Amino acid sequence: MTFADRTAPAQTESIAFEFDLQHGPEKVWRALTDPVLLGEWLLPVIDLHLEPGAAFTFRAPPQPGWDGIVNCRLLESDARRKLSYTWIVGDIDTVVTFTLTPTVSGTRLSVVQSGFKPSQKRNFSGARYGWKMMGARLVDLLTNLHTKSHELA
Fold this sequence. Notes:
The protein is of the alpha+beta class. It contains 3 helices and 8 strands. The protein is globular.
């Protein structure tokens, strides 16, 4: 597994990461769309439906300056290829897009969060840090699920 932060140094509008995973697109897709698995690496999710326009919510324990709620609306769902949804926290209105590309050894997963405004540099930095942390948890989840009896189908 390799992980790369593809965010350009002067970039403040979008964050980009790339993972080369040793798991097929089916397993990676399930980790991105199964509510139980999402709760293990990203955040607990409520009412996730993979239909364009469907609203859903991520909920985390509240923290100073954040109520722990991320409001989302599904923009695109192309099974095992692409998943895109709005990611709204307060006045931060961005789009998160996951793109899965099959490789010889598994899947290349691209994660992009775009739509940050120039005045949201602190939020941009926080999101960049968050995706690094959550990306590491995704890698761990996929590895652990691969080795356990409840391996991803």
